[in-house]
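Can anyone check this?
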Amino acid sequence: MLERIIDSSAFVGGLDRSTYAVQRARARLKSAVRDGRAEFREGNVESIPFATASFTKICTVNTIYFWKSLDGGFAEIRRVLRPGGRIAIGFVTKEKMDRMGLPGDIFTSREPDEVVAALRSNGFNDVRLERPKPTTPWVIAVAS
C-alpha cells in the first residue's frame, strides 16, 4: 500500500522500530527515497524522529499494540502533526486480540474506547470509530 500512498503524496515519512523493516522499505521504494518523496526512519512513537508539524496526515495500522503508552504515543503524534491535520489508526479490538493468544509481554490489547479517550485527552477533535461491517474484527479511529 505504500506505493499507492507515495504516488498520491508530495512526501511520505515512515517510522518503524525494526531496523529490518526500515531497510526493506528503503530498498523496495528506493526511487521515491532517492527523489526525496519518501523517507523511512527507525524509532518509536514515543520519540518520533521528525520535526514538529511535519505532517498533514498520519496513518498507523497494527502498531498500537507495541506502544508503551497511548498517551505518550498520541502526544508525540500530535507534536509532528500540523494544526488541522488528520490521523487514522487501524487496529484489531482487544476482544479479538485476546482470543489470538499473543504474548502479553510483546502485545498490549487495546479497547476502542481506550483509544478514543487517549486521542481526546491529547487534544484531538472530531474523534470517531469506523468499521466497514459490524462483524469486521478491526476498527479505524479517525481524528483531527
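Reply from J.R.: I decoded it. The chain is about 35% helix and 25% strand.
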